[in-house]
Structure formats: structure tokens, C-alpha cells
Amino acid sequence: MALVQSDNLGKFYRYANGRMSGRKSIPPVKDAAGNLITDKISQANIFNRYLPLCLHVMMATSHSLLVVLTLLMVVVMWIFLQ
Question: What are the boundaries of each domain within the chain?
Fold first, then answer.
């Protein structure tokens, strides 16, 4: 079982690294009021408010999914703050 999870984690990192190398800018994101946000810090803050909500819902269903989503949140923050 641990081997399968480790293999999936490796696939996730390969996918994330491939996505990070191909895109340099993030398209505008809508905030709760419907405004388009282009500032990187503001976009990161929007995702920081949204992703924990997803994590809270997923915690009840799968621990491994929680780990993947947590890593995804870290990758998103790293992309925005480059």
C-alpha cells in the first residue's frame, strides 16, 4: 500500500513540475464580489481562503487525498509568490 502511495506522490510531483515550467503567469481570478484580480498576492490570498474549505470537506473522505491537496496548496503558493 505504501508503495502505491509513494508512486502516486511521484506522479503528482512530475505533473506539478511540468505544469510549473510551462506557465509563467496566472490568468485573472474573480473574488467573492465578482471583481477580476490580477495581483499575485491577492490571487494567492483568494486561493488560501478557498483551498482550506476543500481540505475540510475532503478530510472526512480520504487521508491520502488530504495529503495531495495540502501539497497542491503549497505548490500553488510557490507559483504565485515567485
Answer: 2-80
